[in-house]
Design goal:
Elements lengths: L9 E6 L2 E6 L10 H14 L7 E6 L10 H7 L4 H20 L3 E6 L2 E3 L1 H7 L3 E5 L3 E3 L13 H8 L1 H10 L5 H7 L4 E3 L2 H16 L3 H13 L5 H17 L1 H11 L9
Amino acid sequence: MSDLPNCEDLLLNLESGVLYVTLNRPDSRNAMSLKMVHELRAVFAHLHTQPQIRALVLRGAGGHFCAGGDIKDMAGARSKGVEAYRDLNRAFGSMLEEAQQIPQVLVAVLEGAVLGGGFGLACISDIAIANAEARFGLPETTLGILPAQIAPFVVKRIGLTQARRLALTAARFNGAEAERLGLVHYSEADVGAVESRLQQVLSQIRQCAPQANARTKALLLATETEPLSGLLDRAAEQFANAVTGAEGTEGTMAFVQKRPASWTQ
């Protein structure tokens, strides 16, 4: 724990190779302050140096995930002009980019309010678990503003047609509808079921070799930006290195010897 970043708006707990990160501004339903954005970016940067951490579980304190951006931060930027608003908004987009690129599996646990910026965080998760009673939505246009930084991530997650409907109506919906849309992978009936599903998912992650998972995640994300032929060439090289590397050797031997691989916990 000693080498984790110091945070005030986040609670950090490292346990059995899983870093639990809790958004901790319950009085504001964990609205995303600029301080929280900076702290999350520091955590994500740190994770690139911590291959022993297998997964990050992101959730909110007080029964809510995140109700969006902090209106107080936006009000504070008003006196500084347009550039301050631009920088404030862009910092959140950078945080989403960095969250998506961490080598660990990012699991989002979504309860209560999942609005605006919280919706964006849900969209960059590798695995999303929702309480069926969670409330999702993109309320920005009801405030006369845009979902500027989260829009690309929402489109990638649920497709342009549904993103247009939700962004242009500010419609609210629950966890069951979020699952139907493909925004989340699991919608669970209550708190106990959410916790059970989280433990099941973490158990599944622990069956996977850490470096193989990290490289697979990077490969999947690269399919959105890299030409196919070059990507397949690079993937073949990575495959050969993996097969002959430490994890590939251990995984193969464990299979032959009918025993758990060394990375399982």
